[in-house]
Description:
The chain is an all-alpha fold. The protein has a domain at 18-76: Uncharacterised protein PF16691 family (Four Helix Bundle (Hemerythrin (Met), subunit A)). 55% of the residues lie in helices and 0% in strands. It has three helices and no strands. It has helices at residues 7-25, 36-49, 63-77. The protein starts with 6 loop residues before the first helix and ends in a 10-residue tail after the last helix. InterPro entries: DUF5062 (IPR032036), DUF5062_sf (IPR038316).
Amino acid sequence: MKKIKNEAAFVKKAVQVGENYATKRGYAGFSPTMSANQKIEALYRLLVLDKLIVPVPPDKEDLQSMKHKLALWIQKVLPADDPIFKE
Length: 87
């Protein structure tokens, strides 16, 4: 897995955008007490279910891989002139 420059910022943005996507899709599972890691896993699984991202093999499925996949997804979704690309 190749490290993405500014991956943490991309993951943070992916969680924000992903929460909006999930809510519009009808997912009501996010609560204020839900940890960031739980949100990341829920969003990863939702995006895999909707076939928006390719899942990692089950034997290599961990939080770091999920974060990486979310970062790759948000890079494709965001416009090229988004300020996050310049950080």
